[in-house]
Design a protein that fits this description.
Elements: E1 12-20, E2 24-31, E3 36-44, H1 45-48, H2 52-62, E4 73-78, E5 82-88, E6 93-94, H3 95-102, H4 107-126, E7 139-141, E8 147-149, H5 178-181, H6 188-205, H7 215-224, H8 235-244, H9 255-259, H10 262-265, H11 284-293, H12 298-305, H13 312-326
Antiparallel strand pairs: 1-2, 2-3, 3-5, 4-5, 6-7, 7-8
The structure holds ligand 7LY.
The site of ligand 7LY has 16 residues, from β1, β2, β3 and β6.
């Protein structure tokens, strides 16, 4: 039976294209029923080729994880030729551009960002996921300067749990851990810790710890684990970076030790918390609004939503939840096209 494909028309008002990645472009749009802004990642299946598996991986992960510092998935529309992935709006752009703009961040601003990254990665690891492509280009900011992790195309959920070895060499060379560079079997968690060490260095220094024009010189530097320690880095910062950029993964600090590391809790006191929500939880106010909007009973509405079809209803409900969290009104535009 021909599955009815919702086109964007009537459900999203698309605006300009803000980014063009390898096989995707990102358009800004407005979700008509709620008036909320969203980002739509559009992928041409013909251009995806082998990367089609990455899309499936990313969608699988995004439907499972739910964390304030992971970019939310609202809806997936698949046509014969394209994927339209409707995601959380991150108007602050890439963390990378933020660092470049400021040359380098102060220790306290780096701490504020790094705590969010550690919280998101600790959450992913607790679910058995390793991101494996952590870098400033994959970290966006919303308008409140909250970080949002994106691009789960290379993430891994090893069979038998996060502590099982991986083999696939992936991610970006400048952030690659020595064991990855050597093509050894590795633990996703340990590779993520190394990448977070490179990230923290980039935040504090405004440059990469390991960089070179030729890939084998770059690899030699990574394998030696030698990098510049600029004079302006505090002793605590140097110690923390060193504990993450340990060539031997067994000597590397663990995510658990990071959560209450003195550098991360300096002046803030409480340890970084993982606190996550479950993807779709029952909120009676939002359910009420949706039930009457769709002229169905609340129970029926919830029975439908808890199936998490990532259709327009899922998007509407998730966007209502975020409006409620922001303290905005929970109104829905009756003029919007009704989904049958
Ligand atoms: O909402 C997103 N981007 C975004 C939103 C608003 C604005 C800009 C950008 C450009 C900066 N000026 C302000 C306007 C947005 C959301 C999700 C994803 C995304 C989620 N998985 N994969 C991609 C990507 C996004 O973008 C990519 C981007 C484009 C140009 C530069 C910086 C970032």
């Amino acid at each position: 039976m021909m599955v009815r494909h919702y086109s964007l028309k009537g459900f999203y008002e698309t605006e300009r294209t803000v980014g063009c990645g390898g096989f995707a472009k990102v358009k800004l749009a407005t979700h008509v029923a709620t008036g909320e802004k969203v980002a739509i990642k559009i992928m041409d299946k013909a251009l995806l080729g082998a990367d089609l598996a990455r899309v499936e991986t990313e969608l699988g992960a995004l439907k499972t994880v739910c964390h304030e510092h992971v970019c939310k998935l609202y809806q997936v529309i698949e046509t014969d030729t394209h994927f339209f992935i409707i995601m959380e709006y991150c108007s602050g752009g890439e963390l990378f551009d933020h660092i470049v703009e400021k040359n380098r961040l102060t220790e306290s601003e780096s701490r504020m960002f790094f705590r969010q990254i550690v919280s998101a990665v600790a959450y992913l690891h607790s679910l058995g996921y390793a991101h494996r492509d952590l870098k400033p280009e994959n970290i966006l900011l919303d308008k409140y300067q909250n970080l949002k992790l994106i691009d789960f195309g290379l993430c891994a959920k090893p069979e038998g749990g996060i502590n099982n070895l991986l083999q696939t060499s992936c991610g970006s060379p400048t952030y690659a851990a020595p064991e990855l560079v050597l093509g050894k079997q590795y633990l996703g968690t340990e590779v993520d810790i190394w990448a977070m060490g490179v990230l923290l260095y980039t935040l504090l220094v405004g440059a990469l710890p390991f960089d070179d024009n030729t890939i084998d010189c770059l690899y030699r530097k990574i394998l030696a684990g030698r990098y510049e320690e600029p004079h302006f880095l505090s002793l605590e910062s140097k110690r923390l970076i060193r504990s993450m950029l340990q060539v031997d993964p067994k000597n590397r600090i663990t995510i658990k030790e990071l959560l209450n590391h003195p550098w991360l809790t300096l002046g803030i006191l409480d340890p970084v918390e993982i606190k996550s929500e479950n993807v779709i939880y029952q909120d009676h106010e939002c359910l009420e609004v949706m039930a009457c909007y769709n002229q169905v009973k609340k129970e029926a509405m919830w029975d439908y939503l808890k199936q998490r079809k990532y259709d327009y209803h899922t998007a509407t409900y998730l966007l209502l939840l975020s409006r409620k969290k922001r303290g905005s009104s929970l109104k829905l535009n009756s003029s919007a096209t009704k989904v049958d």
